[in-house]
Fold this sequence. Notes:
Blueprint: H1 4-14, H2 16-49
Amino acid sequence: MIDGFEFVQIIGIFGFPVAITIYLLVRFEGKIDKLRESIDVLSDNVSRVK
Length: 50
């Protein structure tokens, strides 16, 4: 995870939009993985019912 100091350095080097994009990608990565796993389970359950 990115801490506050690293986040400030990223803003200084790359600019605010890039820093926000990196932050959001890191933050949502875990949620996207959980969503993918849930979709896989749902898909398996639907295919078993057929």
